[in-house]
What we know:
Shape of chain A: globular
Strand order of the largest sheet of chain A: 3-2-4-1-5-6-7
Largest interface: A-B, 55 and 55 residues
Helix content of chain A: 40-55%
Mean pLDDT of chain A: 84
Radius of gyration of chain A: 22 Å
Number of helices of chain A: 13
CATH architecture of the domain at 50-260 in chain A: 3-Layer(aba) Sandwich
Order of helices and strands of chain A: HHHEHEHEHEHEHEHEHHHH
Largest sheet of chain A: 7 strands, parallel
CATH superfamily of the domain at 50-260 in chain A: P-loop containing nucleotide triphosphate hydrolases
CATH class of the domain at 50-260 in chain A: Alpha Beta
Strand content of chain A: 5-15%
Distance between the termini of chain A: 43 Å
Structural class of chain A: alpha/beta
CATH topology of the domain at 50-260 in chain A: Rossmann fold
Oligomer: homodimer
Amino acid sequence: MTNDPESDLAATVAAVTAGQIRAGTRLISRIERGDDGVTPILRALFLRGGHGRVIGVTGPPGAGKSTLINRMVGHWRKQGRSVAVLAIDPSSPFTGGAVLGDRLRMGDHSGDPGVFIRSMASRGQLGGLAKAAGDALTVLEAMPWDVVLVETVGVGQNETDVMRHAAAVVLLQTPMGGDDIQAAKAGITEIGDIFVVNKSDHPDAERTARYLEDMLALSQRLHGDRPWHPPVVRTRAASGAGVEDLAAQIDRYFATLAAHPELARARMAERVRHRVTEILRHQLDRRLKSEASPLLDPLIEPVLSRQRDPYAVAEELLARMFA
Amino acid sequence: MTNDPESDLAATVAAVTAGQIRAGTRLISRIERGDDGVTPILRALFLRGGHGRVIGVTGPPGAGKSTLINRMVGHWRKQGRSVAVLAIDPSSPFTGGAVLGDRLRMGDHSGDPGVFIRSMASRGQLGGLAKAAGDALTVLEAMPWDVVLVETVGVGQNETDVMRHAAAVVLLQTPMGGDDIQAAKAGITEIGDIFVVNKSDHPDAERTARYLEDMLALSQRLHGDRPWHPPVVRTRAASGAGVEDLAAQIDRYFATLAAHPELARARMAERVRHRVTEILRHQLDRRLKSEASPLLDPLIEPVLSRQRDPYAVAEELLARMFA
Lengths: 323, 323
């Protein structure tokens, strides 16, 4: 490393795009620490293009996500594809890379240079984790991984925001009893591109899968004919049953996007719109929440004397943005 | 009610500022539901001025906040002051006003027209609750309450954001053992204007209070001479001991603000800055996250073709805002 920031940037970008794991790991650690100095690097990495094959996997705790992901990684490795997994855990405190957890997660794949597994947690602000996940995915997408997988635990706002970075969302469900099915969120079918009912040997599994299929058919009728009909895949992560089918459905999804450029474009536009909004919020917070805020102070003056209200000031700032 | 929005607005503003509890309650329910139609009313209420005496009470679960607040309300009522309490509970799901909980909370004050107690929860987004609390406080501040109290449970980001709406922050602590004291957050002294160690009969209470006093003295030395030295008050909410002292310290705090206009102004500017930022974030989310976003779409075009990166677009939007 030299002391010249320009050549540092070039060297880091070259190392990451060449697939040097150490360079990628360092960058993700800096993102996790909230180091804003990485932004120029992330900008350069974004422009280098991403393969766009980020697959999100989410679902409630206990649905068997980790086991299933391990199986999927195994399947892809057999096909000769390299895989990076980013596990987002908002519940755990910042652990400096969660090294022990990651080693456990590696499972069968520890020592395989074609597999990269990294956890991310957040200290501080809630909203910050989804933004940091987007930054880390920018790094992983710039590396030559064949598949980039992002996993979240849970179903809160944070998790939904992380999933908005993915090109394809796999939503796991555990078999549900009758009451749980009644209570299932109505909007659930809008979140996933591929649905999975894991633990398919469970007595409630088939009923749950059929219920999801009915909901998806209804949603399809409501929205008119769409090129992609989200399928419901039955898996048993413990035995590996259904994993091949799931991988095939993911490939079929990306093939559908390739065959329908207008759909691919709309999905990508949605991701970019979300990304810009997220970065904007983050920058706005940093600028406005700081003690010294010469930008905002002249606008605040008339509010202090109650000649103006804070809603009006916010509206004016928004209007300026989109003038 | 007529169908003329102008006169509806005028009638609602008149009813709220006159102190009609029903009008205030309805408005808070609309805020809780996320009804954006209330914004013109909130704007008018803000301009009517607020008394600015919003007192925030926060602290960990089990610290005895509810009991202490009940005691404080009793004390103020004896002095002939009317009191409104807004209890923010991010953990509970939306309950449509939490009527049962509020009745329980009313405790000794149920049936007293000089006391108003209202809980607020949030459905949906995390950040939204603090913004909704700010809106509800705008309503309560426009009503002729002598004291407005806002209570949060817990110590997360959401709670901190709610406390930023208060003119005075009372931070409750339970007596801590040696290990807990070691683990106490270093920044804790920056949050409160008045510290309370409740359960003062507990064997660890005095040690905890002295520890806080030491931290506060250190902070005072670091920051130079400030007009207000946060005191540590010992209370026993269960018996009522120390409650008068706490109320006196709150009065002394507001007297200090009155005697130091530059301090009062700085504190108010901080609140307004936070409020504008919060509203701006909220509006930004609503505008940009919607499917149809004609505002953002032209900017997204070059990002889709990777000629530009999302960080650059966010920076441009920010620059426009503060041009």
